Amino acid sequence: MLKVENLSVAYGAIEAVKNISFEINDHEIVALIGANGAGKTTTLHAVSGIVPIKSGSIFFDDLEISKIASEKIVSRGLVQVPEGRRIFHNSTVEENLILGAYLRKDKDGIAKDMEYVYSLFPRLLERKKQLGGTLSGGEQQMLAMARALMSKPKIMLLDEPSMGLSPLLVKEIFDIIKDINSKGVTILLVEQNAKMALGIANRAYVIETGKIVMSGTGEQLLNSEDIKKAYLGG
Question: What does residue 93 show for φ and ψ, rounded to 5 degrees?
Fold first, then answer.
């Protein structure tokens, strides 16, 4: 579904991502883990078309997308849930969700998906007329994910969905990620909570200073002594 080949991204003279390659198959959950500043978010931004690439190729459903505008990438079924949620604070929950579907023309499908995201996130239904900025951190994360789902994605790129949330809410968010995946949406998950990420991932990649240094199944990396020492406090 998604294939990244020899991707490099630079901010001026600083090379943030250095010749990395990875792939994600249909219906997988793939985690990208690493420390702050390792290049995780830059990788997502490059895949989403938010930042230009220096070199390499990005293929989505066999189409090269590295030179395509970000909104065209969204219309093809690839959507990112950004770090920090980035919801529209002065718009209601319902308005945020409608904005998530702004590229769609199928009114009946939009209405059906609105019902679906409210069933997935019942707290958003209770607060649908409430301004996004008045929601709790966990509710804002739910709204950001629900808004992304309104674009009817084939693949969702999730950037640090657990950031700033209580352990109870983190578990709830990860359960929802598994539920979304079970409905057929492929997931690329960037997450500092390596234990939670590896616990739900089919496969994972470890990125350090812009380079992928390790890969394997989620279980393999969870049981790796190197990963335990570096990311799991073991």
Answer: -55, -50
